[in-house]
Write a structure and sequence with these properties.
mainly alpha
Length: 82
Amino acid sequence: MATLAVASPSVRTKRTGAALLLVWCGMTGFSGLLAEQGFERYISLLVGATASVAVLVTYFLGFALGGLGERTTSGSWRNGAP
């Protein structure tokens, strides 16, 4: 009976993948920060001095609604998992 040997990725491949993931996360975070700053400046032209509060509320409301949506669609809400 023949067995099929599966080679595991080398340590170098794992480190390269982790480094690429870290760079990717950093780039997306930086682009999100730039987008938030642009949105804040745009809103400040329309609203005035209260723009910072409106941007922060909108930003965190998006996080809250996104987390709630993910939890309800992933099934963990029905299973009772944290």
